[in-house]
Structure formats: structure tokens, C-alpha cells
Amino acid sequence: MTDTSSAIAGYWDAAAPSFDDEPDLWGRAVDDERYALIARL
After folding, report:
1. Over the range 13-22, which residues count as b (16 or more CB within 10 Å of their CB) and which as e?
2. Could you name the domain of life of the organism this protein comes from (predicted)?
3. What Å distances lie between residue 19 and 3, 10, 30, CA to CA?
4. What pLDDT band is residue 36 in, cutting at 50, 70 and 90?
């Protein structure tokens, strides 16, 4: 995970508490697909 991905993941973890329901998913799935999806926002 890059620093940018970590920062985005941390931001969304704080901004969207619903992601806390799936911490394992979020931990593994910040990959190119999710990064691209988030980067478009």
C-alpha cells in the first residue's frame, strides 16, 4: 500500500464509519480498482 493509499484509506475510515463494519475487506482491498474508484470522487 502506498502512502497515498494509506492516507485515503485513513480519511475514508474516519469519514465513512460504515467501512468499520468491514475492516478486513478494507485492509486487503485498497487495490488499484478501489483506489481508482475513490480517486474519482
Report:
1. eeeeeeeeee
2. Bacteria
3. 19, 11, 12
4. confident
